[in-house]
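My main concern about presentation is that the manuscript never shows what a single data entry looks like. For the editor and my fellow referees, an illustration may be useful. For illustration, here is how one protein appears when written out as sequence plus structure tokens:

***
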Amino acid sequence: MNDSAGTFFPEELSREIKSRFHHVDHDYEGNERLFFDNAGGSFRLKAAVEQAATIDAIPDCTERVHRAARHLQDIQDKGTADFRLICNAPDGAVFASLTASGAMFDMVRAIGEYIPGGNFVTSTLEHPSSFDAVSYYAKRLGKELRVAKSNPVTGGIDVDEIVGLIDADTCFLSVMYASNISGAKIDIKTIVERARAIKPDLYIIVDAVQHAPHGVIDLQETPVDAINIAPYKFFGCRGSGMSWLSNRAARLPHHKLAGKPADFWDLGSSAPAQFAVVTAIVDYVCWIGSQFRQTTDRRSLFAEGMERIELHERALLSRMLDGTSTRPGLRKISGVSVFLDHPDLSRRDLIVAASFDDVDPAAAVREYEKRGVIVYERVASSLYSKRMLDSFGISGAIRVSPLHCHSADDIDRFLAVTAEMARAFRAN
């Protein structure tokens, strides 16, 4: 197994994986296309969509005692257990919300308001849902906001850069698992170890929305206090955020009904369909894991499945960057530049930031669409991009983000379109 360049799924398994998702090769109207914008949205598992519709159609209230209500309670309990399995977090509190962004604001507020400390630490690469939450409460509470700079070579944040901002007066650290522009993974494990060496009781909040679909999360190895994901970016459905809090964070004062337990975070009745979607996601990843490992342990199967997804996506990334003997990759197509192109692919999720030398990113994205390829521009005029791009010294980029249900042939088609566009742009 060549881990450095990844390992493709066997062809038969790859075809079966693709068949389990909606709209991989065609849009909702049946038009053929490549959808390489999974960092903005994500393909939906057929099983997740079906479960969401089936469970949401049941009218019964989960806070009753009759049979249908108990059935919904079982679904919610199973989904809660499966979210714990995703995080490898047997204790603490799990709660569902309408969005992962809303949950992030709630978690930042609870920790920021009630944990002593004179400063908050975060990074310049954070998604606005976390960066803006941290900066808002820093201003409101009169705390110093300390922001770790990005590394324009790796596209990530260096451990030393983050740890150097932490001291005994730091209230909490908020850091993302991977950049949604460069795909660079942040070394959360080392950051947790070194940050807690400076302040053993430091609270740590992690935005895992971007990284969760691409690799294993293990809170036994990275014992943070709060983490969130967005199921719609993890093969699930929109209208849902899932979060976990450590025992000590869960018991901090927060918005809740007075009669609920101190560590209860759901406001109002949760939608059992949200939890059914989580179980559908875990079932699917465990199924992939079962193709490579024989065990009845669900967490082991899930971890195996995520590791295989990561290896396949690394192989897709390697092919996109380096191409083949007959088709040049992005690194070798004349007129194309790859930004933040760190050579160690094990440190990257499946996201590429690139541009054409002769056309701005927004115009290039429109040209891709004309050729049946959906990608997205990240430009400095966007509130979702400016801070990060400025930190890299980049005015704009085309973000290319396939998913593990894509194949090597899909990458080759994308490279052929890109090479043709580069020739056309030069000719004009």
The mean pLDDT is 96.
